[in-house]
């Protein structure tokens, strides 16, 4: 009997029914054109049951593909210009919110970052499956803290005391209760601040300006049977510095992880602070 292909490497998952596969497709930042939706429908009719399931990670899967049609179906996906998903011990498709493209709360261009992550990292072999999520603000709709590596948009508020009239609007509306008027001066507790941008948007005198803008980076999160919250290991990382910093995280992970160990297990064994310090060292050496 010939050895079966590595279905998961190409985004095909064996179903519970013998001989059948789920054909998974990915997109970039959760976006797909109407034309591509029509192509997905054609694939579902040609190779599957005519149904398409939308996954919680913004992808789609077509059930009922026969194993003997695997290569034909895989080539049909590529010929249609669609993006196959990847599974197994490698970097999975990226989840992202709309960010500044459409969301009124977005602080960063999440779609641009997600596109780079997809092009440069998705499918890379690693010790275990590794999931990325990109969120445009502190609302964290894509749950970056629940992913192996998460990126959350952040904008630092800075007070222009000459313009501030101490009206207290920002104090009342701050989601983190990080602002206070102390001795008739507006003060920000940056340890408590979410860098969410709410205060800058609502200040009636434009006395709150945006300082540093970038991504807070989380590492070591996961869901599943044994969920774990990620640790915040870097703040206000500029967009152009995200990719080199991510490479440093992955280099440290590959050095320390055994096969099958998620990043959360590595961080639990060595400590989040030690991992963060090692990442900083690797990132600095690469500059």
UniProtKB/TrEMBL annotation:
Keyword annotations of the record: 4Fe-4S, Heme, Iron, Iron-sulfur, Metal-binding, Oxidoreductase
Domain 4Fe-4S ferredoxin-type: 155-184, 186-213
Protein name: NAD(P)H-quinone oxidoreductase subunit I, chloroplastic
Enzyme Commission code(s) on record: 1.6.5.11
GO molecular function: 4 iron, 4 sulfur cluster binding; heme binding; metal ion binding; oxidoreductase activity
EC main group: oxidoreductase
Superkingdom, natural source: Bacteria
InterPro entries the UniProt entry points to: 4Fe4S_Fe-S-bd, 4Fe4S_Fe_S_CS, NIR_SIR_4Fe-4S, NiRdtase/SiRdtase_haem-b_fer, Nit/Sulf_reduc_fer-like_dom_sf, NO2/SO3_Rdtase_4Fe4S_dom, NO2/SO3_Rdtase_4Fe4S_sf, NO2/SO3_Rdtase_FeS/sirohaem_BS
Signal peptide: none
Gene name of the encoded protein: ndhI_1
């Amino acid at each position: 009997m010939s050895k079966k292909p590595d279905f998961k490497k190409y985004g095909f998952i064996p179903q519970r029914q013998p001989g059948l596969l789920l054909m998974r497709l990915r997109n970039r930042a959760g976006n797909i054109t109407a034309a591509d939706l029509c192509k997905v429908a054609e694939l579902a009719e040609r190779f599957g049951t005519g149904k398409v399931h939308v996954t919680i990670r913004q992808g789609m899967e077509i059930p009922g593909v026969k194993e003997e049609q695997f290569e034909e179906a895989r080539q049909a996906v590529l010929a249609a210009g669609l993006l196959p998903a990847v599974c197994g011990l490698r970097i999975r498709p990226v989840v992202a919110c709309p960010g500044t493209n459409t969301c009124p709360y977005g602080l960063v261009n999440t779609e641009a970052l997600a596109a780079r992550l997809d092009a440069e990292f998705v499918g890379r072999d690693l010790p275990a499956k590794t999931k990325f999520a990109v969120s445009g603000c502190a609302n964290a709709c894509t749950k970056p803290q629940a992913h192996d590596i998460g990126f959350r948009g952040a904008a630092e508020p800075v007070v222009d005391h000459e313009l501030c009239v101490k009206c207290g609007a920002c104090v009342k509306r701050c989601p983190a209760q990080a602002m206070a008027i102390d001795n008739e001066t507006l003060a920000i507790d940056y340890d408590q601040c979410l860098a969410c941008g709410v205060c800058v948007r609502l200040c009636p005198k434009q006395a709150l300006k945006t300082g540093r803008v970038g991504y807070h980076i989380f590492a070591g999160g996961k869901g599943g049977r044994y969920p774990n919250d990620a640790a915040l290991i870097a703040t206000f990382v500029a967009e152009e510095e995200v990719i080199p910093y991510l490479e440093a995280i992955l280099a440290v992970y590959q050095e320390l992880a055994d096969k099958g160990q998620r990043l959360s297990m590595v961080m639990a064994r060595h400590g989040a602070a030690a991992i963060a310090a090692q990442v900083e060292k690797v990132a600095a050496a690469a500059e």
